[in-house]
Amino acid sequence: MSERENQGYFGLYGGRYVGETLVAALDQLEEGIRNFFADDSFWSDYHILLNHYVGRPSPIWEAKRLTETIGTSCRLFLKREDLNHTGSHKINNTIGQVLLAHRMGKREVIAETGAGQHGVATATVAALFGMKCKVFMGAEDVRRQAPNVRRMELLGAEVVSIQSGNATLKDAMNEALRYWSEVSDHTFYVVGTVAGPAPYPRMVREFQKIIGIEARTQMLELTGKLPSIVIAAVGGGSNAMGIFHAMIDDPDIELIGVEAGGKGSNPGEHCASLNRGRIGVLHGMKTMILQDEDGQIDDGYSISAGLDYPGVGPEHALLQECGRVRYEIIDDQAALEAFYLLCKFEGIIPALESSHAVAQAIREAKRQEHRNILINLSGRGDKDVDHVLARTAPREETDANMTRR
Amino acid sequence: MDRIAQTFYTCQQEQRAAIIGFLTCGDPNFEDSFNIIDAACSAGLDVLELGIPFSDPTADGPVIQKASQRALKSGITLEKCLTLAKKIRERRHDIPIVLFGYFNPILAYGPARLVHDALDAGIDAFLCVDLPVERFHEISDFRPLNCSFDPIRLIAPTTTDERMKTILPDASGFIYLQSRSGVTGVRNVNPADRLDFIRRQTSRIRQWTSLPIAVGFGVSTSDDVASLSPLCDGIVVGSKLVLHIEKHFDPESRSFARDDAIHELTNFVASLARSSRRSAD
Q1: For a 10 Å CB count at each end of chain A, is N or C smaller?
Q2: How large is the ipTM?
Q3: Of A187, A204, A221, which marks where a domain is finished?
Q4: Of B106, B108, B130, the CB nearest to A19
């Protein structure tokens, strides 16, 4: 028992803080992991799907024009997870989990989604496997990520719009957990990030670590050495764990996670759980959480729906505590500037989530010299175009009005 | 004998199941909540389950979610919940009070401080919905020796025999038997199927413990209580009680028709208490 329990913790963080109803489902999932992770044919199916369906390995692109524009002696490299089928790193995980669900004999999957990327990735793989799919999404996210809602529906998924709370990712996950506690005997819950009760954080990391494994080899091929700095955005933290995991044992590689600074440092204005949160329990895990002094969860905020979450994967809490990863904050404005720079100079429209990582890389490049900086470009920004333009347009109008006055 | 054991013993002597009422503390505000709870106790509650409001209650359906929101908007905190419990205890020496809630507010308050203040307030037990038995020690470790601040164990429809065997022998207070999966609230279920299910579950539980068994989740009418009372020792009613507060509260103006709510709620509790008597046959 104690050995199994330790496996669910990362230092003090993680664990399984769920109602009795879900204990059996989590035990069953652990058993599934034990059985199928030891089975070579499971992993060969996973890799065949990643190579031929997702399009892996994803390339690494050196962003030379961006580098020139910044005027730095550092070199910037982008790990192009945005080129994956469905447009982000999320599909690495959904391929793994839906494959597992299928082997465990489940016929229905559910998922929570913020930006909609995980929802689309789940709906996609569910369609491929002929499984029923239900996606829980906050009403606010349904509004700001409308194209992804249409995609999920085209792929045959049912999108359930959630009105409670701030109507974003946290509320979607609450509702997914409620629904799952009713149907857990025949339904598999595909969690979208390295969060939730054990064994989810570790399982999702196992499906995402392919990013870092590929990137190591690619950087060695491209530059003859490992990168000096690796940067990734952190909401729940799956793309970051994905690229960090294969690098953690190389102490010379500096790892930087980037949290969403939103529009200010007051509660409700940002999503910097690691920098500004306290230890707590939410969604089945003990981790760093944005909360008030009475333990009520704060509603976070970020321009980027995928980072709009008041908690963070428990392994990140441990990596911060032991100092292996440095966690920085990038606000909406800096992320938007990076978004535009990448569009203009590299011809790449990045997801707003990934734009936070790009912004931090630009900062590092300006204050460091001759470093090779690897950025996890976790997703593409097609989904964000309307939102960014709608946000930018009125501002220009205001500027114009002020000039006229 | 402690209050929980004494209450179930008395009910057994009187040939009835104990009526366990759940109400969210501070719903819709501190003063009204105190009056409602006090009136419900007078109307015939045998055990009081006092809900600590939480922003993200993942085990609760819409009715109790809204109750939490009403209470939080009125400024309720865990500290005030304990004050309210203490006020109830001052007026009622015998009723067992069970603190019912989620772990994060307790963690923020400090588990050691909670145990101390809960005992001081005269609380008898706690049920922390998202703290599984394996983690009870995160609260229980802070209990003084020989105190009866019992962690209540919950048995779900999905709980396996193997797990019952590890959970139940150490149980204390009473066993909370969940009558169906999912979250709290009223749902259409086939009454005959439910009774069959409760019979099967109680006989499974009886293999491992002789503690009183209370059935909860989706119990909403006097008929439910009448049909369940021969099968168990206690019956938990939550959402249906809370609904009487929701009905008389206007979220826009925050005005609350307290007297109407109390009148309806006490009538309802009294009817449940009458129905809990097991008929002679």
Answers
A1: C
A2: 0.95
A3: A204
A4: B130
